[in-house]
């Protein structure tokens, strides 16, 4: 099924974070061009579902007007926090108005399912994500008073992620629809470059020291940020998938 507008369905299941779908749904019996159908009894059904999600994702990356999907990037996250150390001098930083680009370049690389219990595990890969945000911080870092604020930038290469979710089927007007009941996710990043700029106090010496610390400890800092990132991404992804499932009947893309 060729498609001129497409995005990896991994985005549907993850980091993903994406815009809300419009309130219009496909016609009752028509199979939309962005749906690749699979058969439940196919011994290679997992491979088919991986292709189906990649097909939908590729369409999504450029927009699906029928679902009201137009601008798919940047992915927006309102706030993420990090805490290093404890006590009154512990370092705290909050990142606001985060914009992430590159998520729509993801590809599904693995799919495991139990269709009887409606359990899905999706593995995907994103070559590179770039992010920008505003940040505010307080406390001491590397023995320096690091309170202040400015702009944050990050480049994350080789992103691997897994999303697991349990769904439940429900009938609406004689057709089966899925709804996500539980979702978990995890991710790793091979290479990270990040830093701060435009410090509010204009202290270029502090800025250089902080950037040296950040890039020397990038993976460790990511681990500290990970719980907050996963929490926000699971919320956004679950809402997105449920929004999608509520508009596309299960029996439209999974044939018996």
From TrEMBL:
The keyword Nucleotidyltransferase does not apply. Residues 1-22 form the signal peptide. Keywords: Biological rhythms, Signal. It holds the Pfam family JHBP. One of its GO terms (cellular component) is extracellular space. One of its GO terms (biological process) is circadian rhythm. Gene3D superfamilies: Haemolymph juvenile hormone binding protein (3.15.10.30). Belongs to the TO family. This is Protein takeout.
């Amino acid at each position: 099924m060729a498609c001129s507008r497409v995005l990896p369905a991994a985005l549907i299941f993850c980091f993903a974070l994406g815009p809300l779908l419009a309130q219009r749904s496909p016609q009752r019996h028509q199979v939309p061009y962005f749906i690749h159908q699979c058969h439940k009894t196919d011994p290679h059904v997992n491979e088919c579902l991986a292709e189906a999600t990649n097909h939908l994702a590729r369409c999504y990356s450029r927009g699906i007007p029928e679902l009201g999907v137009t601008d798919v990037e940047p992915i927006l996250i309102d706030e993420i926090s990090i805490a290093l150390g404890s006590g009154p001098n512990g370092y705290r930083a909050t990142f606001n108005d985060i914009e992430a680009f590159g998520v729509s370049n993801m590809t599904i690389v693995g799919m495991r399912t139990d269709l009887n219990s409606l359990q899905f595990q999706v593995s995907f890969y994103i070559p590179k994500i770039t992010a920008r945000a505003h940040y505010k911080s307080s406390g001491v870092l590397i023995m320096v008073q690091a309170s202040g604020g400015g702009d944050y930038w990050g480049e994350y290469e080789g992103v691997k992620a897994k999303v697991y979710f349990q769904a439940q089927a429900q009938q609406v007007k004689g057709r089966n629809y899925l709804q996500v009941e539980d979702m978990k996710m995890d991710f790793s990043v091979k290479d990270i470059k990040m830093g701060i700029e435009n410090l509010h106090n204009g202290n270029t010496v502090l800025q250089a020291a902080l950037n040296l610390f950040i890039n020397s400890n990038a993976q460790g800092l990511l681990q500290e940020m990970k719980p907050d990132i996963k929490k926000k991404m699971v919320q956004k992804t679950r809402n997105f998938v449920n929004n999608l499932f509520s508009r596309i009947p299960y029996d439209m893309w999974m044939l018996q």
